[in-house]
């Protein structure tokens, strides 16, 4: 399958594309298709000569889509062979022979048949058994259609085979395929499970402890107590001052010893009560300041207690199935 063979038949394809359109009464769309097909085919030949087989393959396929001709299958087969896609080359050559029929001369047919013998030794037949239908097959990331009962032609070598189905997880395997083999591959696709979490009841929701301000009750109690004691101290001070004035007046009266003793005793009593209340006031004021400092800020958060285990329910949906799971 040399390049010279394809170059020799370039003129044949160009003529076939030119002759595909009627001489008169042809639609403009068909004219554009013929022109595009001829341009893309020529570009494919150039890319093939440059060794850019992937780009050449794309141009040959676009040429066939624009202006179908059985002769393009020959170029497709040659390009796929260079890309070591032996299965694709074999299909292209078989389609070339089927569509070309008696339009292919004997020498060319013999050449293609000899190539097919070589290609059969470089391909394997793989039968797929999948638990889901319909399922699609991809080989080396190229779609190869739906899973069928008849074997699928696969090129020899390391192949990446994937099987997909709607609603199921894709399963991919990498296999080393030998030529002239007949293989059977079994795929068990697993459904894609969609879980719908039902909203938990208010009883099952854990409460996150909120930060709270410290209670100021001790401070307020101390403040009131200090105020009452300070008021009592002031009253005692006033009474003591009055008693002391009465005592001094009693001293001015001669022979007034009983009144002097009563005034002295009253002064001492009220002065002592005032001192006691004053000391209590100072102590209460100190405790109130301490209470103010201790009740400032927020209480440290406590670790949330784990709620008791409650029944949980989950709705589960899968292809052709639905159910409920949970803990009770």
Automatic annotation (TrEMBL):
Cited InterPro entries: TPR-like_helical_dom_sf
The keyword Transmembrane is annotated on this UniProt entry: yes
Record keyword Cell membrane present: no
GO MF annotation, one: isomerase activity
Keywords noted in UniProt: Isomerase, Membrane, Signal, Transmembrane, Transmembrane helix
Protein name: Thiol-disulfide isomerase and thioredoxin
TM spans (from-to): 219-239, 272-293
Cited Pfam families: TPR_16
Species assigned in the record: Labilithrix luteola
Residues in the signal sequence: 1-20
Top-level taxonomic group: Bacteria
């Amino acid at each position: 399958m040399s390049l010279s063979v394809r170059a020799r038949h370039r003129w044949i394809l160009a003529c076939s594309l030119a002759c595909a359109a009627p001489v008169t009464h042809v639609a403009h769309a068909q004219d554009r298709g013929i022109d595009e097909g001829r341009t893309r085919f020529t570009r494919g030949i150039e890319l093939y000569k440059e060794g850019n087989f992937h780009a050449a393959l794309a141009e040959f396929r676009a040429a066939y889509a624009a202006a179908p001709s059985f002769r393009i299958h020959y170029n497709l087969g040659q390009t796929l062979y260079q890309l070591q896609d032996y299965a694709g080359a074999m299909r292209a050559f078989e389609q070339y022979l089927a569509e070309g029929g008696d339009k292919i001369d004997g020498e060319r047919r013999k050449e293609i048949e000899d190539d097919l013998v070589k290609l059969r030794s470089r391909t394997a037949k793989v039968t797929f058994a999948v638990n889901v239908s319909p399922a699609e097959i991809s080989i080396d990331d190229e779609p190869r259609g739906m899973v069928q009962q008849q074997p699928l032609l696969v090129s020899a070598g390391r192949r990446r085979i994937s099987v997909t189905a709607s609603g199921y997880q894709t399963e991919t395997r990498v296999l080393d395929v030998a030529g002239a083999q007949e293989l059977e591959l079994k795929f068990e696709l697993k459904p894609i499970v969609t879980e719908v979490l039902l909203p938990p009841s208010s009883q099952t929701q854990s409460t996150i402890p909120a930060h709270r301000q410290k209670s100021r009750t001790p401070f307020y109690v101390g403040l009131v107590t200090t105020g009452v004691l300070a008021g009592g101290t002031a009253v005692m001070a006033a009474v003591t001052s009055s008693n002391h004035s009465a005592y001094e007046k009693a001293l001015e009266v001669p022979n007034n010893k009983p009144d002097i003793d009563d005034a002295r005793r009253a002064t001492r009593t009220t002065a002592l009560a005032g001192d006691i209340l004053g000391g209590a006031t100072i102590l209460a004021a100190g405790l109130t300041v301490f209470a103010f400092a201790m009740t400032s800020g927020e209480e440290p958060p406590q670790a949330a207690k784990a709620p008791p285990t409650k029944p949980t329910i989950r709705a589960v949906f899968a292809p052709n199935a639905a159910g409920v799971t949970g803990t009770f």
